[in-house]
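Worked example

This section walks through a single chain of length 616. The input is the sequence exactly as stored; nothing has been trimmed or padded.
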Amino acid sequence: MRRHDSPKVGENPNSVTDQPRSERDTLTRLWPYLWAYKGRVMLALAFMVGAKLANVGVPLLLKDLVDTLAPKAGSTQALLVVPVGLLVAYGLLRLSTALFAELRELVFAKATEGAARRISLEVFGHLHALSLRFHLERQTGGMTRDIERGTRAVHSLISYSLYSIIPTLIEVTLVLTLLATRFDMVFAWITLTALVVYITFTVTVTQWRTRFRREMNELDSKAHTRAVDSLINYETVKYFNNEAFETRRYDESLDRLRQAALKSQRSLSLLNTGQQTIIAVGLIAMLWRATEGVVAGRMTVGDLVMVNAFMIQLYIPLNFLGVIYREIKQSLTDLDKMFTLMTRDREVADAPDARPLLLKGAPSVRFDQVQFAYDSNRPILHDLSFEIPAGQTVAVVGPSGSGKSTLARLLYRFYDVQGGRIMVNGHDVRKLTQDSLRRHIGIVPQDTVLFNDTVAYNIAYGRPDATHDEVVAAAQAARIHDFISGTPKGYETMVGERGLKLSGGEKQRVAIARTLLKNPPVLVFDEATSALDSANERAIQAELAAVAQGKTVLVIAHRLSTIVHAHEILVMERGRIIERGTHPHLLMANGRYAEMWRLQQAEQDGAVDRRERTHP
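Given that input, the structure is written out below as tokens.
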């Protein structure tokens, strides 16, 4: 397996050129998943060999039946001389061929499904373990298409290789051996030559047309990505009356896909015509040689029938060789794409000696000379240092782009700092396991995205093992219980894709409720009440203040009125702290904070005046 280097600062992980592994490497990667069911693998192979032996035995018995009948042709006594045992054996062999094939599939189904399940789970888990940078820059539609095709490729690869290629090779070997030993070598050479020409032609043409198939898949992923992206942003499309524009863009993708599909179909027709020509020439040569042998007395009519039956049995699976070869190649490509996702390094990973964070109470949090940049050409934080003492609240204010929300992402270890360190209870977060760190932190984000499930599910997501009464208590604390109870389905109300059935304020209160339900010792409020009206904001602020008692709290705020009681307020600008202190202290300093306070007060007074003029 090729080792992937971690992306550098500001590098797009999706843009890393992943050289495709060889097909042998992909199969080597798949094998351990199948070998976990080695007993079933060996039993399935035994059934497969049994099915082929029975299949080869059918023409042999057919020859004996024909030869037995031949001397009595036209006689009313003919049926009396046909050995009943041959007829029974013929029927049993026919049945055995199908029976062994079904047993093989039945036995191997658990291995196939189990391997597909394990691979899918590993990919899913690995994607969740990748960094936030990867998920911000991924194309969801195309990625889900790759995973879907990769999972399907496991089934296709096993099905085509185990159920088609290997059985055909076994049958070809048995038939060539029989033809060479029972007749002269010419039959074996004709068969072998036809097979070599057939396989060479099929492989050559299929490799040539693989690029059309690959182009089709790429265009299919792009069309799917475009459709998913447009539907996810349904509201934005409506805001700007761009339905026709989106339809036109999607149609352009579909038209390119159509053209690629037509190229693929034309090349497939060429492949099929060439295959049938080779089969026809080989079959004619074999039957001509057999007919010559019957006329010369070297062979019986039964031998002629047997040769014909062998050729039909061989060429029926070979008819699909082009499709099988193409599907195996495509399955290997699809599987490699999914394995590539699994080999993508985690930008943020636990250190080998990482320890779990164990807390008995609220911890202290310290940012010590932190430097960070999403892109190396645009630093965000510059030697940032501050501390949130255990059980206290520190608020951060400043203009957009000053780096406030970045503090929450770094504390959660969505990214690692490039300089300095972040300490929780005296432990560098890079030396702690991410799972234990995040279990002790709760966040109410500025932009709340909900699962397309019920309100109860979304609140309980903060602690999935919570009881319904605990969910209700959290909803009451977040001042959303009355709204939920007023809906026809109550807590079973579906919130829609990304929670779009709820208003911004309702979504934010659901986010507050699930964080309150989690009840961690460290809380982060990132504009936690920005979407609420003043009355609800004041009520929830009181609830949040009560919940924050005895907890370590980082508040990222825009409205200064919400953080006047913080133990310390930090004023950030361009990634640096330019002022710090309590609310009264910062007002007395008459600096940037005081200026922001006066501006917001003036805006608030102006809003009150306008309301009074409108509603005297």
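What to look for: Residues 16 and 183 are 59 Å apart (CA to CA).
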